[in-house]
Specification:
about 55% helix; mainly alpha; about 160 residues; elongated; 2 domains
Length: about 160
């Protein structure tokens, strides 16, 4: 009887893994990275990076946001073009998408979505003392963010228990 119970659990686990694989395949073919909820950590990270591929505005050289999280130091003319020509708005849309898909996302420079968003808004506000200054102030990390890892760890522990 115990063998039958373990076999049922193993089949249930296999079905669960198959369902996750199907969802992952569907996630790869979706145009809008925000179209799926409750993505696994790796799928969410991949979709957050897809948000950065949305390049609809014409930006000054190097003005497109990418995974580095760095916005170049523009000349005064290029900064005005960045802010008024739609590039800043596009950057804010990209950041909203990244935050919607994966709220724990940190760019390569360790900046959070909010760090870059706040920088762009201040740098493009003519009444701000930071107008034209695209230097990103990075929020210090308060240690490792274990929330995304906890789900993977829990799945590993459960799968190990099932196959004992």
């Amino acid at each position: 009887m115990a063998l039958s119970s373990r076999m049922n659990l193993a089949l249930l686990f296999a079905a669960l893994l198959a369902a996750v694989a199907v969802v992952s395949v569907q996630a790869e073919t979706t145009e809008d990275p925000r179209s799926l909820d409750n993505l696994a950590v790796f799928a969410a990270l991949n979709h957050a990076l897809l948000c950065l591929d949305n390049k609809t505005a014409t930006c000054p050289p190097g003005g497109y946001l990418n995974e580095t999280g760095i916005i170049p130091k523009f000349s005064t003319t290029d900064a005005q073009l960045y802010c008024t020509g739609g590039c800043a708005n596009q950057t804010l849309v990209q950041l909203k998408c990244v935050g919607d898909v994966y709220r724990y996302f940190r760019f390569n420079n360790n900046a959070l979505v909010s760090d870059i968003r706040d920088t762009v808004k201040a740098a493009c506000d003519p009444s701000s003392i930071l107008y034209g200054n695209f230097t990103i102030k990075v929020t210090p990390s308060s240690g490792a963010n274990l929330a995304p890892i906890a789900g993977v760890t829990l799945l590993s522990v459960v799968s190990a228990i099932l196959f004992l």
